[in-house]
Design goal:
- The protein is an alpha/beta fold and 171 residues long.
- It has 8 helices and 7 strands, in the order βαββαααβααβαββα.
- Strands 1-4-5 form a 3-stranded parallel β-sheet, covered by helices on one side. It has a two-stranded antiparallel ribbon with strand order 2-3. Strands 6-7 form a two-stranded antiparallel sheet.
- Strand 6 and strand 7 form a beta hairpin.
Length: 171
């Protein structure tokens, strides 16, 4: 697979990357970008941090003072600050709190690029995506309603295979 010159790919993984614990929160984001392009124009790193619940006092605190959830949110912001046009989110709803998820959903609503999200969160899948990819059957599905029969088919097939008796050879 080749990634074209115009593709700027970023991804949010379930595991937080190593962070310099003595670095200030704002500097962690400014290392990526001082100003972040959005559909509404450029916003400062400080404004993006504020939008994602890092008040001015927290922005100048060292990363070591953050909780695990705050570090996860900061890592998410680093990914967003890189201004990708293709964003991969791996089980994003497992790793962030509800207020952050709500802010992220609003952010993604105005995101100008493509978002590919892997998720088992039904609520997230119902309200947010516009297209679903069924990788098992290599098909594009227009909405969650089209996904439900596939889920039931896979669930029934799994139950059926689990209910089959395993016969051991006689010795």
């Amino acid at each position: 697979m080749e990634i074209g010159d115009t593709i700027k790919l970023e991804y949010f993984l379930r595991r937080i990357e190593d962070m310099n614990s003595s670095q200030r929160v704002i500097d962690y984001i400014k290392d990526v970008a001082e100003f972040i392009p959005t559909r509404d124009g450029l916003i400062s790193a400080s404004k993006l941090l504020e939008q994602f619940l890092f008040d001015p006092a927290m922005q100048y605190a060292p990363i070591e003072k953050l909780s695990g959830g705050e570090k996860k949110r900061l890592y998410l912001l680093k990914v967003l600050a890189a201004a990708p046009n293709v964003l991969l989110l791996d089980e994003i709803t497992n790793d962030i709190d509800i207020p952050t998820l709500t802010i992220l959903e609003d952010y993604l609503d105005s995101f100008a690029g493509i978002v590919i999200a892997v998720s088992h969160d039904r609520y997230f899948l119902i309200i947010w995506p516009t297209v679903f990819l069924n990788l098992t059957e290599m098909e594009i599905l227009p909405n969650m309603k089209a996904v439900i029969p596939i889920i039931w088919r896979q669930r029934n097939a799994a139950r059926e295979s689990m209910s089959k008796k395993v016969e051991l050879p006689e010795q």
